[in-house]
Write a structure and sequence with these properties.
Helices cover 27% and strands 19% of the residues. It is an alpha/beta fold and 197 residues long. Strands 1, 2, 3, 4, 5, 6, 7 and 8 form an eight-stranded mixed sheet that branches. Helix 2 (71-79) packs parallel to helix 5 (138-148).
Length: 197
C-alpha cells in the first residue's frame, strides 16, 4: 500500500465486514485522506468509504516531539489523514479518565507511581520527558479529536468494572459529539457493552 513504510507492522481486524488497519509502529505515514468529516461507525457505508480504515495507535502518530498519548500525537494523526486514534484510558486517584498508556509514570514522565496514585489536577501538570507535552484528561482528548475530525478507539486500561467511571466516560463521549465515532475494544465485556453504547 502506498504511503505505508515497509518496516511497519499492521494488525488486520474485521469490523462490520470491513478491514481495519491499526498502526502498531510509531513511524508509519498514513495515506492522505480527503476531507470526509467525522466517521460514523454506526453507518457501514461510512466505514466502507474509508477503506482501509487507518487508526493511529497509542494516541496518535508518535515522534520525538510528539510522545505517545499526547495532544501533539493526536494532531499529527489528523495532519497525516488518519480516520481515528486509539486512546489508552486510565483512572486518576479521584476517578477522572486520563489518557496515558503505561502502568507507571517513571518511563514517560520521570515521576514515581502510577496514574492511579495522583488526582487529575496534579497529573495534568506532569510533562513528558524531553517535550513540552503534558498528560491530559480523556475529556480534553475527545474535544480535540472532535475538533480535528478524528474518531476514537478507546482502550480502557483501568476502571473497566466501575460503573460510575464508565458512565462519566460515556457522558464525555456524548458531550464531545463523538457517540457515533467511538468504539471500545477492551474491558469487562458485560459492563463496557452496557455503558458505552
Amino acid at each position: 500500500m502506498p504511503g505505508i513504510r515497509s518496516r511497519c507492522r499492521l494488525l488486520w481486524v474485521s469490523l462490520w465486514g470491513v478491514v481495519v488497519w491499526t498502526q502498531l509502529c510509531w513511524m508509519c505515514d498514513a495515506r492522505a485522506e480527503d476531507a470526509r468529516g467525522l466517521i460514523d461507525l454506526r453507518d457501514v457505508a461510512s466505514v466502507r468509504a474509508r477503506r482501509p480504515l487507518l487508526i493511529a495507535h497509542r494516541g496518535g502518530v508518535v515522534a520525538d516531539e510528539a510522545p505517545e498519548c499526547s495532544l501533539a500525537a493526536i494532531e499529527e494523526a489528523a495532519r497525516r489523514g488518519y480516520a481515528m486514534v486509539e486512546l489508552d484510558v486510565r483512572r486518576s486517584s479521584d476517578g477522572v479518565a486520563v489518557v496515558f498508556h503505561d502502568g507507571r509514570l517513571r518511563p514517560a514522565c520521570d515521576r514515581a507511581g502510577s496514574v492511579a496514585d495522583y488526582p487529575a489536577a496534579k497529573l495534568v501538570e506532569f510533562v513528558y520527558e524531553g517535550t513540552d507535552e503534558r498528560i491530559f484528561t480523556l475529556d480534553t482528548a475527545l474535544g480535540r479529536c472532535h475538533a480535528l475530525g478524528l474518531g476514537v478507539m478507546l482502550d480502557l486500561k483501568a476502571g473497566r468494572d466501575d460503573g460510575a467511571f464508565l458512565d462519566a466516560i460515556n457522558r464525555s463521549i456524548e458531550n464531545n459529539g463523538l457517540s457515533s465515532a467511538t468504539v471500545s475494544f477492551s474491558g469487562s465485556a458485560e459492563r463496557v457493552s452496557d455503558s458505552l453504547t
